[in-house]
Design goal:
The structure is a single chain. By secondary structure, this protein is mainly alpha-helical. The protein has one domain. Helix 1 crosses helix 2 and helix 5 runs antiparallel to helix 6. The longest helix has about 40 residues. It is elongated, with a radius of gyration of 20 Å.
Length: about 150
């Protein structure tokens, strides 16, 4: 919980000072606590009666995990994916903004210094388009497929 509440900017600066400016380290340190908490809460919300039913039918532990646990955790995986992708973009841009000589964050920093609002907004719009594409083309179809058992009559 402590890492979950550590501001991303502080984590990025510490990564820069301690291990060099790498996007992977900054993303991992910022994202792992959030995913862990989201999945923990998902595990807490599992329906024990479904697991009891699987035991009555003598399902093996791996089959219970695949057919009982994983489908119930799918919405939590999807939420972690959504927040993760959104957070990853932001962290990578800040890392590039702060200390890289290439990348989109560097370009945004350059346009910021030149007061080129149109270019900054163009990058913002492109990120929105990419994120909406990921949401509608990947996450929503996967989530519908993973949660179809809830709507089966």
């Amino acid at each position: 919980m402590a890492l979950l509440n550590l501001p991303a900017l502080v984590t990025i600066v510490l990564c820069y000072l301690w291990i060099g400016l790498t996007e992977v380290a900054a993303v991992a340190i910022n994202k792992i606590p959030m995913v862990a908490v989201m999945m923990r809460e998902g595990a807490r919300a599992l329906d024990p009666s479904l697991d009891d039913m699987a035991r009555v039918y003598r399902m093996k532990p791996m089959a219970r995990l695949i057919h009982v646990g994983a489908p119930q955790l799918a919405p939590h995986f999807a939420a972690a994916g959504r927040t993760g992708v959104a957070l990853i973009w932001k962290i990578v841009l800040v890392v590039e903004f702060l200390g890289r000589s290439d990348g989109v964050g560097f370009q945004i920093h350059l346009y910021f210094q030149l007061f080129e609002v149109g270019h900054v907004l163009a990058y913002a719009l492109s990120f929105i388009v990419v994120m909406l594409s990921i949401e509608y083309l990947l996450l929503q179809p996967w989530e519908r497929r993973a949660s179809r058992w809830r709507h089966a009559g």
